[in-house]
Amino acid sequence: MTDSARRSTNAAAPSPRRRARCARAVLGVALAAVPLGIAPAHAQAPAPGRGIQANVEHPVLPIGSPLPDFSLPGVDGKTHKSSEYAGTKVLAIVFESNHCPVSQLYEGRIEQLYADYRRKGVTLVAINPNNAKAVRLDELGYTDVTDSLPEMKLRAQLRGIDWPYLYDGETQATSSKFGAVATPHIFIFDQERKLRYQGRIDDNQREDLAKSQDARNAIDALLAGRPVPVAETKAFGCTTKWMSKGSGVEQEWARIQNEPVKVDMVGADDLKALRANPTDKVTVAYFWSTGCAACTSQLFDLETTYRMYRKRAFNLVTISTNPPADADAVLALLKKEYASSTNKQFASADRPALQAAWGETWNPSVPLTVVIAPGGKVLYRKEGKIDILEMRRVVLANMPDTGYVGSQAYWVRALQEAKKR
Amino acid sequence: MLPLTVLRTGLTLAMALATVACAGTQPDGLPSGFRAPDFSLPGADGKTHSLGDYSGSRVLAVVFTSNTCPASQLYESRLRQLADDYRSKGVTVVAVNPNRADGMRLSDLSYSDVGETIDDMKVRAADRHLDYPYLSDGQTQALVRQFRVVTTPHIFVFDQSRTLRYDGRIDDAVREDQVTSRDARSAIDALLAGKAVADARTAATGCAVKGLSGPLTAEQRRDALDSAPVTVEMADADALKQLRRNGTGKLLLVNFWATWCAPCASEFPDLEATYRMYRPRGLEFATVSVNDPEERGAVLDFLKTHRAAHRNLQFATSDVYALQAAFDPNMPAPVPFTLLIAPGGDVLYQELGELTVMKLRRAILASLPETAEHPGLRAYWSTTD
């Protein structure tokens, strides 16, 4: 039998008329999702009658449990073991972090707790459960530093933290034993080192609105030999950044490397407008040139800062003082740094004239960094090498905190107090 | 009368399948003596595959199939079995995905966890242990046009000289337990035995090939939600209790978030995309901001930026703990927290911390109502082998 004969006898071959009807049906396929109502869950689907489940991967330490053993490095450069606190009547372990804005708002309250109870035989130990390698740049919108041990030292220095502040980010084994849900999350142990309270420090992240001092109530009860009134509460804040969950740090870096980098020429009027900052963003203006080694090394820190704060009221504008003829070299250097900030370059070789338009002269062989508030007020100005943390703190103390009320006040106070120390 | 209308009145399954089968017949058959055209296509295994790679095979079966078509999904295990059963007999099964990833909207993905890019195909191949070559023709769709394929799945069986001997359906029922005629196997068996194929051509059933008119324009890609108004309602304890009970009659996705919470911001686009994917099948979505009432402006700005045109709630008071307890005394306090609630309140899925979007999508797919055309989808998404 030939192929054509075989085909002609094929009963399944549709008639032209059937084809026409079928063409309409093809269009109908996507629409033909007719729900039959939600049927009982399939045998392998979650069982019916299910409520919200407790975390099974990192279960919270049950009340009555003994103190888990730990041995962790602290910001004081020493290793601290759970056994070294054996002499105290009550031991409070607080999980807190550098980057979490809720945790930051509790720093002052933790300090007060520590100061009020240390003479009564209560020891307070803070543990950071996070690993900086698992914290993305876009998670650092409310902080000057991330969650590494060296950066915990910087936070302790700035804030005068004198209670033990330990780092568990290396393995997160201690945090997992406690089942630390969030930062902040407090666990209070009695003299026998049995867990008697876990949960929130108090009942409102805004200190002025807090009504129930749950951690203090628990400590007072233990010191008085009374049962703890409420043994367990929830702990609101930022979720613990478990490394096992995958952090997206590498994906973030891949995205950053794909962001477009471009440069626009600026003349005298553009510079005047930039200086007046009519935007609603705290703006960093960074003047630099390709010939200046100090300039390019600082570019990296500024771009990192931009990646940290760009989802808030913040902008970074880099302005190359190179003449227009250097455009290719300027762009190449910015591309090397994946500088997706707003980038400008002097539109004329007459540098003094453009400096004058900006409103000041400086030695163009060193960088100039100016932080400008919306409306034009200069918040920070530095010729030459900057202390990037100092600059970030100025930015943090001046960005409006419409998305988290209290954060700006935290940074204003942190800077005031640091100045006094 | 359109099959769709008939289905709505409640038709028996057999009749329903017969009408859908009609949906897949080719407008034009291939010419007699059609020879397998050469190709060079990227595979889910990371390699480039061409026709010559299989020159040693006595029989070559080319199956057009895709990630997003529910019928294709229900045939994955049968294709794997086909490849396994005939490998030692000199038969090679090669799957080709004809769909253009850029020719599809999010709402075209309502039956799938992934789309149709080569990376999506890698995910599917790994998840479902697809050990036959799975190639993408989505870049040019040149092979699809040569085969004149309009639906997936559609199988073509070639003899040793690579002349077409069978084209059409793999078997006669989407539901494996109702299959009575294994047409592709019969054709392969006949060729291996040196006999003529009894039915050289059958009608293929399934989903229309996507993107044959090229990539979608920005206008075509627009979702109705993109221009819908975005609002936020202040939620007291009662509103949150009601939300938890899910009286919508539909599957409900709930996400607790805050403007200051970076993982919340980071996962939000995935949640929006997920909602746009499954909304055609009735998924409901409500976000709950745990921000202080004073931060309402920032909350609304964020929602507008993300075109979050669905139900959005925000805590009506500063007492976060009381409002969380009103929603559910067992809910964890930190954000983000995401849960999937069945009508009536059963929690089908939950995740504390940044979302694992693929897990969420699979939970949604395992819980959405089944359709008459594709029975077995809940089972497909409830199991991973």
Q: Number of DSSP helices of chain B?
A: 13
Oligomer: heterodimer
Radius of gyration of chain A: 30 Å
Q: How many strands in all of chain B?
A: 15
Main-sheet strand order of chain A equals: 10-13-12-11-14-15
Radius of gyration of chain B: 24 Å
Unreliable residue runs of chain A: 1-48
> Secondary-structure element sequence of chain B?
HHEEEHEHEHEEEHEHEHEHEHEHEEHH
Strand content of chain B: 15-25%
Structure commentary:
The complex is a heterodimer of chains A (421) and B (385). Chain A is of the alpha/beta class and 421 residues long. Chain A is 34% helix and 16% strand. Chain A has helices spanning 3-8, 16-29, 101-117, 149-159, 173-178, 214-223, 249-257, 268-276, 293-309, 327-336, 351-358, 388-398, 407-420; strands spanning 71-73, 79-81, 90-95, 122-128, 165-167, 182-183, 185-189, 195-199, 238-239, 264-266, 282-288, 314-320, 342-346, 368-372, 378-383. In chain A, the strands form 4 sheets. A 6-stranded mixed beta sheet of chain A has the order 10-13-12-11-14-15, sandwiched between helices. A 5-stranded mixed beta sheet of chain A has the order 5-4-3-7-8. In chain A, strands 1-2 form a two-stranded antiparallel ribbon. In chain A, helix 8 runs parallel beside helix 11 and helix 12 crosses helix 13. The longest helix of chain A has 17 residues, at 101-117. Chain A is elongated and about 80 Å long. In chain A, 41% of the residues are buried. Mean pLDDT of chain A is 89; it is low at 1-48. Chain B is of the alpha/beta class and 385 residues long. Chain B has 13 helices and 15 strands. In chain B, helix 9 links the parallel strand 11 (252-257) and strand 12. In chain B, helix 9 (262-278) packs parallel to helix 12 (357-367). The model of chain B is unreliable at 1-27 (pLDDT under 50). Classes of the chains: A alpha/beta (421), B alpha/beta (385).
